[in-house]
């Protein structure tokens, strides 16, 4: 009842503000003046997080500090105004463009302030990749109120603001004079404050991703430019694939049913979501969040693994690519075969199970097996994503019917935030109290971490159960298992939450991920692998760059693109 009354009060306030705005007679202004007012509103209201950080980076302890902060404000005004200039030249188009930009910028400001995220091309890519269910998790009362008061109402004011009647010549002359004045001011700032500004932007590169709406405009522009570029010529690197000597006594073909003596070889590759190494029990976390995996013999946890990116849209395709992180781009990855193409060319069946937004291009045109939201009422609550258990039930059924050499990929929902409490059944709520909100400002850090750790505990059970089932079928097939998370997560460190911070400034919590390996004794014998040798390599610094080449080494597959120095398993192959 109290929440209803509060919501009605908020609505009443909004209607009163709108009514006042409707009756207020605003003076007519030119396009340049309207643009300036919008820039000032954005700087003072929608960039509070930037100013807060600026004062942390450069505390005002002297007149020189104050002068620098004021010069930064003037510089931000100039740059923002110049960015908006091409969008505010038309009398007819300026108001709708600015109105939409104010609403979008107010939403972006909420996430920057509340979760500490930064806006760049990858973040915009993530926005377009987010499905409706994930979006609803982020739709909080705080977001609605901020967008209403700081986005919608100012946008309505802009729409109602009368414009002076000016000829094209007058508008051009006035805008040219304003731009000339701004460039003169910019030159003055550069002459006096160039060194401190350059130093700040060099040491705090995240600042450029915090200034709204420039961060949005530049990121959308960069993504749009990428989208309209001509695709690169396709490189079919899988054409050179060959099977190694350990396959010499077996015949890989699509007619395994005609070869009853053939023992299928299976690789289960699990791509985790948002699991960070720091909270993984196998990586010496203070809490035992992986008790089931810990109890399985021959499980190897690599504890120094770095992700290729800080978001699923980048990490997943990069994970399956032969390109290193430095070489990788979504455009290049789309123009060449990836790991699954190579494995398919080598004769393996490829099956992709997905409980995430998508495979982000990594699975190509292959059919995805997705979880059915009606499959399990307990694991698929209404209006929320299905828990991973619903997907693994499909995986376990598939394991019983594999009779061909297969690569089985499982793309988990894992620990995806902010709704950590929605990712596991109630019986896995071992660490309490937990945060049951998607607005982290309503929870303590302890509650957020507890909910997150429970997601790792649940994933541990699903992964261990999968290994157990593979072990139980070791008499009829040889199997290997690899689990690696796509990226990590921030849980309040340095005021940051969630993930997708630009890689250059990303904290280690978003970059360091867990990776687990297991193989059956038959698989080790078949491929000539020493389990003791693999275990000794668990402390070696590795990254997502290793996966492509290590899987080829694990499966004894040769390829001209394979790099031996990135193959974790090649030193452990017996003759």
Give a concise summary.
This protein is of the alpha/beta class. It is 47% helix and 10% strand.
Total number of strands: 12
Q: Any idea what the CATH superfamily of the largest domain is called?
A: Alkaline Phosphatase, subunit A
Nearest-angstrom radius of gyration? 27 Å
Q: What is the name of the CATH architecture of the largest domain?
A: 3-Layer(aba) Sandwich
Structural class from helices and strands? alpha/beta
- Largest sheet entry: 8 strands, mixed
Q: Uncertain spans, ≥5 residues at pLDDT below 50?
A: 1-8, 251-260
The neighbouring-strand order within the major sheet is: 5-4-6-2-7-10-3-11
CATH top level of the largest domain?
A: Alpha Beta
Please write out the topology.
Layout: H1 2-23, H2 31-45, H3 48-57, H4 63-84, H5 94-115, H6 121-129, H7 132-138, H8 141-160, H9 168-203, H10 214-228, E1 242-243, E2 265-272, H11 291-294, E3 300-306, H12 312-319, H13 330-334, H14 339-345, E4 349-354, E5 368-370, H15 388-399, E6 406-411, H16 445-472, E7 478-485, E8 490-491, E9 497-498, H17 508-511, E10 512-519, H18 521-527, H19 531-536, E11 542-543, H20 545-554, E12 557-558
Parallel strand pairs: 2-6, 2-7, 3-11, 4-5, 4-6
Antiparallel strand pairs: 1-12, 3-10, 7-10, 8-9
Helix pairs in contact: 1-8, 2-4, 2-5, 4-9, 5-8, 6-10, 15-16
